[in-house]
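Need residues for this backbone.
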């Protein structure tokens, strides 16, 4: 069973990379893709409301490195295991650097027509999407591995998964990212997360 799961995660990693590269190719070929138009229209028609926007603005900050840095520091103060503390910190640093490198390579301008907040920098891939998947995804792994109470484990994992999705959708909702920015951010970050968990887990366990 462990062998099957081990092979499965590398298959998922490979698929995510292929899909990410396909999106990159499409972005280079088209300033705005069909996916971008369909994604924004779906969110605009079904979710955008004046009353909902302030709430979305709050939730979108949960994917910001500026928010997650003090959260990381807090976790480092609370958690007893030194290696786990460092693994959480290194994870945030690595994914932030990778995101900035990818943004510099692609250099895609942000959408301008429907912005509800001001954001600077390049658009592709979404930093909030990448960082939320890597950071909260790693917490999901730690919760799954170390928390014994099944109810608490299920609730925490479910909440974090929902939070990741909300953060991604919020970037499209607020008009600061294209749909392809967010989807690509999720895909490349999931690939990264699989590799990071594999490496950090061996380090934590001293293997």
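Answer:
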């Amino acid at each position: 069973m462990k062998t099957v799961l081990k092979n499965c995660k590398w298959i998922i990693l490979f698929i995510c990379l292929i899909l990410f590269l396909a999106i990159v190719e499409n972005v280079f070929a088209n300033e705005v893709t069909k996916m971008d138009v369909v994604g924004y229209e779906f969110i605009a028609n079904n979710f955008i409301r004046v009353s909902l926007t302030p709430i979305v603005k709050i939730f979108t900050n949960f994917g910001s490195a500026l928010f997650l840095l003090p959260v990381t520091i807090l976790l480092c103060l609370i958690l007893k295991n030194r290696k786990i503390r460092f693994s959480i910190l290194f994870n945030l640093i690595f994914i932030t650097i990778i995101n900035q490198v990818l943004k510099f390579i692609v250099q895609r301008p942000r959408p301008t027509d429907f912005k509800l907040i001001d954001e600077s920098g390049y658009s592709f891939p979404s930093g909030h999407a990448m960082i939320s998947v890597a950071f909260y995804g790693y917490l999901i792994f730690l919760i799954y591995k170390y928390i014994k109470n099944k109810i608490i484990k299920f609730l925490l994992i479910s909440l974090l998964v929902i939070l990741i999705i909300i953060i991604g959708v919020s970037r499209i909702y607020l008009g600061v990212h294209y749909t392809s920015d967010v989807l690509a951010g999720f895909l490349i970050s999931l690939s990264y997360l699989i590799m990071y968990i594999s490496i950090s887990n061996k380090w934590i366990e001293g293997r």
